[in-house]
Structures are given as C-alpha cells and as structure tokens.
Amino acid sequence: MQTVIPAPSPAILPVYRNPAGFPVRRVYCVGRNYAAHAVEMGHDPDRDPPFFFQKNPDNLDPSGEFPYPPLTRDVHHEVELAVMLKSGGADIASEAALGHVYGFAAALDMTRRDLQAEAKKAGRPWEAGKAFEHSAPIGPIVPAGDCGFLNAGRIALSVNGDLRQEGDLNQMIWKVPEIIAKLSELFHLAAGDVILTGTPAGVGPVERGDVLEASISGLPGLTVTVV
C-alpha cells in the first residue's frame, strides 16, 4: 500500500560478524529482576510475578554514543542482557521458550531517574523516564548457536574505568525462559522482538564525557560515550 507520508525506516541492529542485520519489531523490558537491585530501589525482592514496560524500537542505538537527554538532571545507567527472538506466539511454555531465541547482546537501559520518580509518585506511566531517544545503547548481537543460551556468567558495567555494577546472570529472579513464557501471556510475541532482562545492583548517574563499558560473559563488550 502507498503511504501518505514517507514510511519511517525500520530499526535494524548489527549482528556480530554478519553483514545482515536484525530487524526490530518491539522492545520489552523486565523491571527489578535482580534481588539486590530491587532492594536498592526500595522494594521487596520476593519472587512476585514479573512486570514489564516498553521502549521503542528506534530507542535501540548501536552507535556507541549516548546524547545526554533534555529535561533531566539525573540520568542513570543500567546494564542488561538483551534477548532477540526469531519466532514467537502466545502462551509459550517455558520449556519451549529458548527455541524462539535468535541471540543475545549487551545493552544499557538508560533512565531519566528524576522523571521516572515523578511518574511513580503520581501513579503515571514511565515512558518519559524510559523510552526517550537513544535510551537503549546496544552491542552487536551474537546468535545463540555461537554463544549458547546464556543462563550464567558475569555482567558488569564500569564508568571511566571504575566498576559500578557487577553480578551474574544466574542471579536473575526470573530466568530467560520464564520471562518469555510470562511475557507471551500478555502479548503475542513475534520474530524481531527484543527483551531487556533487568539490571544488577549499582545503578547510578552519568555525566557528559563519561565512558561506559558494559560486559557480559560470552558477548562482545559495549563501550558508550555520554555526549
């Protein structure tokens, strides 16, 4: 069908050592999926059902630069494992969930923490704090066939060489198969969906000029400069 205005360009992410890219359909994020992070944010880390929020496909940014956003004085880093789906469906069983995974990448869930806090206090949605431009820096995707299904391994973030966040993927309250299963109860998942799986403790502010280095065992590192 012809369009009345130019159609927007799709978000396409780089795949490690592959000239073809990964087209993004939707971006889902899991909130408070590491117990220590739940505690530092003032919440009980009991294994309550997971909750989700969304970012926009074009928030995913592989450029290596993070422009400091407007209308905030408190932008925080959150290092996360990103999961890319090659297929989907509704009501996916956790035992079958990994069969829908294309690959993994290191990512950051950058957050305008002051705007998020204001939204929480007013009982309003989080989009202004979470789904702004360039809010999800991301590294190259590694297919699961090359790196395996990542259910354990170090996840860490340094800022200007100083370690800020460190944990292990096995500390996730809800593991990747469970996340996919629970998410598919709420949404019909499909190829091109990206899931950010939560962050370990140690989130904190960034400033212009900071250099963020994210690492997850088995994946290429991600270096991002705040500009």
UniProtKB/TrEMBL annotation:
<dbReference type="InterPro" id="IPR011234">
    <property type="entry name" value="Fumarylacetoacetase-like_C"/>
</dbReference>
<dbReference type="Pfam" id="PF01557">
    <property type="entry name" value="FAA_hydrolase"/>
</dbReference>
<dbReference type="InterPro" id="IPR036663">
    <property type="entry name" value="Fumarylacetoacetase_C_sf"/>
</dbReference>
<keyword id="KW-0479">Metal-binding</keyword>
<feature type="domain" description="Fumarylacetoacetase-like C-terminal">
    <location>
        <begin position="27"/>
        <end position="227"/>
    </location>
</feature>
<dbReference type="GO" id="GO:0016787">
    <property type="term" value="F:hydrolase activity"/>
</dbReference>
<keyword id="KW-0378">Hydrolase</keyword>
<protein>
    <submittedName>
        <fullName>Fumarylacetoacetate hydrolase family protein</fullName>
    </submittedName>
</protein>
